[in-house]
Write a structure and sequence with these properties.
Pathway: Lipid metabolism; butanoate metabolism. The chain is an alpha/beta fold. It has an eight-stranded mixed beta sheet, sandwiched between helices. A hairpin with an 8-residue loop joins strand 6 and strand 7. Helix 7 crosses helix 10. The radius of gyration is 19 Å and the shape is globular. It binds 3-hydroxybutanoyl-coenzyme A (3HC). 3-hydroxybutanoyl-coenzyme A binds next to helix 7 and helix 9.
């Protein structure tokens, strides 16, 4: 048994909203925190619209919708996380921001056996564990976008993560959420992003050099390798700011050129062209 019924999710962006949704649909009590009321309302809208989509597709009954949304609360005060059994941090991929969140959670969460998880894709779990007095209770639970669709969760234990934390986190991911787990050591990028991000960066370099068009690069991988979407469209889905942040963490850890973000990616992020979430990236989503 995971012993987890009250979950806190820090952040309600693409990933935080998806994590909150799968926890709600698994019958849990979910409290989501955001930096201000506007962001909290946007988070609620994101979660509600995804649940409405499930209802309209006949994947959820109208009565279940009421029950699910009745278990969702949003707050702008992390102090309200005191009674949480598990907190999943899903804020922007920025080390200091995450460190600050973990230091605050350590002060406010009163349950002695609470689990402090991060959805980071690339920042070492050890750095987040050391921001707390309870590094044995800190673990990486890394979800994949779209969270309600993709089965995988990467479980990442640091050198100090306790066995009981690891066992309960796996029971939560598999037994409660119905996900499938792979385990990785605590290295930037873990398994999936260490393989995926160099591939995405190669596609961006290919486009940048004029070697091929965005459509041809993406169609090449969709039609030639049966990928569900091509690398540029996938980078747009992940978010170009997040793709850049993961590349930078990988580069900082390994100092290998294949992880270095290409100038085109940097300029697009400078320009606010962040992909699907901003309406434009390698493709236009404004329509
Ligand atoms: N929320 C809930 N359900 C969604 C969804 C979302 N955001 N997006 C799609 N779906 C569901 C649809 O409802 C549909 O369900 P149905 O078959 O039961 O009707 C199903 O997924 C397929 O969706 P669509 O028909 O609209 O579109 P596609 O068949 O093109 O699938 C996709 C869309 C699921 C996004 C698919 O293209 C895909 O899996 N792409 C690859 C995504 C991927 O690689 N993600 C990993 C990114 S890496 C990451 O997240 C790690 C991080 O650290 C960066």
């Amino acid at each position: 048994m995971s012993g987890i019924s009250k979950v806190g999710v820090v952040g309600s962006g693409l990933m935080g909203a998806g994590i909150a949704e799968v926890c709600l649909r698994a019958g849990l009590d979910v409290l989501v925190s955001e930096v201000n009321a506007t962001a909290a309302e946007a988070g609620r809208a994101r979660i509600t619209s995804s649940i409405d989509r499930a209802v309209s597709k006949g994947k959820m009954a109208e009565s279940e919708r009421e029950d699910v949304l009745g278990r969702l609360r949003l707050t702008t005060d992390l102090g309200e996380f005191a009674d949480r059994d598990l907190v999943v941090e899903a804020v922007a991929e920025h080390e200091q921001t995450k460190v600050d969140v973990f230091a605050t959670l350590d002060k406010v969460v009163t349950r002695p056996d609470a689990i402090f998880a991060s959805n980071t894709s690339s920042i070492p779990i050890m750095k987040l564990g050391m921001a707390t007095q309870r590094p044995e209770q800190v673990i990486g639970i890394h979800f994949f976008n779209p969270v309600p669709v993709l089965k995988l969760v990467e479980l990442v234990t640091s050198l100090l993560t306790g066995e009981e934390t690891s066992r309960r986190a796996e029971e939560f991911a598999v037994g409660v959420l119905g996900k499938q787990v792979v385990r990785s050591q605590d290295r930037a990028g873990f398994i999936v992003n260490a393989l995926l991000v160099p591939y995405l960066l190669s596609a961006i370099r290919m486009l940048e050099s004029g070697f091929a068009s965005a459509d041809d690069i993406d169609n090449g991988m969709v039609l030639g390798c049966a990928h569900p979407m091509g690398p540029l469209r996938l980078a747009d889905l992940i978010g170009l700011d997040t793709t850049k942040a993961i590349a930078e963490s990988l580069y900082a850890e390994f100092k290998e050129a294949l992880y270095s973000p290409p100038p085109l990616l940097l300029r697009m992020v400078d320009a606010g062209l962040l992909g699907k979430k901003s309406g434009r990236g390698f493709y236009d989503y404004s329509a």
